[in-house]
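Suppose you are handed a protein chain with no further information: no name, no annotation, nothing but its sequence. What can you learn? This example shows the usual starting point.
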Amino acid sequence: MTLVVVTVMPKRGVLDPQGQAVQGALSHMGFGDVADVRVGKRIELEIGGPDPAGQAAKMCDDLLANALIEDYSVEVPG
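A reasonable first move is to predict its three-dimensional structure. Written in structure tokens, the prediction is:
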């Protein structure tokens, strides 16, 4: 089995209400120097077979990421 890490983030230019809420909260807490916040998700998968990264990319295309509003990256930590 191979550990595969998928990171899914909102595309640049797409409204990120969670990121805006976190940025506002940080500002109210005194962290006014934060210029932008984007909130995404990290998914860790244990995948068997000859091409775990390729399988993870297919999973992203089919289910884990919404191609209209999200980008994803697939990493196999070494």
